Amino acid sequence: MNIHEYQGKELLKRYGVTVLDGYVARTPEEAEAAAKKLPGPVVVVKSQIHAGGRGAGRFTDDPNGKGGVRVVKPEAAKEAAAAMIGHTLVTKQTGPEGKVVNQVYVEAGCDIKRELYLSLLVDRETSRITVMASTEGGMEIEEVAENHPEKILKVAVDPASGLYPWAARKLAFGLGLEGKQVGVFTKFVSAMYDAFVNLDMAIVEINPLVVTGAGDVVALDAKVSFDDNALFRHKDIEALRDDSEMDPKELDAVKNDLNYVALDGEIGCMVNGAGLAMATMDIIKLYGSSPANFLDVGGTANAERVTEAFRIITSDVNVKAILVNIFGGIAKCDMIANGIVEASKALTLKVPLVVRLEGTNVDLGKKILAESGLAIIPADNLADAAQKVVDAVKKAA
């Protein structure tokens, strides 16, 4: 789950991470009032959307104008906010459709001497939380990794011992920090690590992390994402979710305990188990088409959840066929089959439906589908299912 910059900074501040003073504003008037509370001579008005590249972005109704991050005098904050709130901002990460800005963050100005990069994430290669840092602050880390990989510093943290001060100091020296900056940076990184672990974060990225003229280390931005599977431990954080930033289908899936991610393909997928779902998407690509979604109904799927899954899949106008791939374990094949039949009748499916069942009560499940009277295309294995669903899309074209 992603949250906005202002929300991330508030959480990090609780753990001792240094951030600038600022206030969220949902109207130009609120932005004006916020600017008056902050010291001059300038303030920064930042669009709050779940996407990077806001400063270089452009608003659809003013493509040649300024971006979604503007440094202005306090008296100009209202005008800057009015140009953002309610308008659609397009960045490299939003796609051409952009995102509507519903609020801005009005933040104090900063005396920037250097811009650095700092992040914590779960590294799949080491199975550890890894601290990444770079002297190339303000740039996209992917670009740095491609063009200047030697400028990316990494420290993998042993979960048993936590982040040692010497490891943080090693990063500080690698970034060229000196004097009191080393100690300040060490405390900063340690505070970020504590927040990461205690709040079950998936990633926290500070870009840029700035060194001020006074030698302080400050988070000028904050991108924070959480492990969805741990949100049950953090109801206060779950309450920070901005529904307007989510794809309506993904939001619907969250409310129905379904794991769904919208993609840009043409074959809707309903699978139980994340690994099997990934394999299903891969084989669809192998056979010449592309998945319209990732959808894992989970190991305890029932008829109601199957119906909701079908409803979400069919709400995507790009879906030209549906592939159901179920390995029956806790969710037995006959129960899934009944759910498929009920959902197909309730929603009046208008696209081809290919079903592959395997596992507990598979024969009974296949019998239920065969006797349903519905135009369901059975498949014997995953390869057979992929071939049939791709052929069905071609015939429908």
UniProtKB/TrEMBL annotation:
Protein name in the entry: Succinate--CoA ligase [ADP-forming] subunit beta
Species: Muricoccus nepalensis
Cofactor: Mg(2+)
Keyword Metal-binding: yes
Cofactor comment: Binds 1 Mg(2+) ion per subunit.
Catalytic reactions on record: succinate + ATP + CoA = succinyl-CoA + ADP + phosphate; GTP + succinate + CoA = succinyl-CoA + GDP + phosphate; (S)-malate + ATP + CoA = (S)-malyl-CoA + ADP + phosphate
EC top class, as a word: ligase
Family: Belongs to the succinate/malate CoA ligase beta subunit family.
Residue numbers binding Mg(2+): 207, 221
Domain ATP-grasp: 9-235
One Pfam family named in its UniProt record: ATP-grasp_2
Annotated metabolic or biological route of this protein: One-carbon metabolism; formaldehyde assimilation via serine pathway; Carbohydrate metabolism; tricarboxylic acid cycle; succinate from succinyl-CoA (ligase route): step 1/1
Family matches, as InterPro entries: ATP-grasp (IPR011761), ATP-grasp_succ-CoA_synth-type (IPR013650), ATP_grasp_subdomain_1 (IPR013815), SUCC_ACL_C (IPR005811), Succ_CoA_ligase-like_bsu (IPR005809), Succinyl-CoA_synth-like (IPR016102)
GO biological process: succinyl-CoA metabolic process; tricarboxylic acid cycle
Origin: domain of life: Bacteria
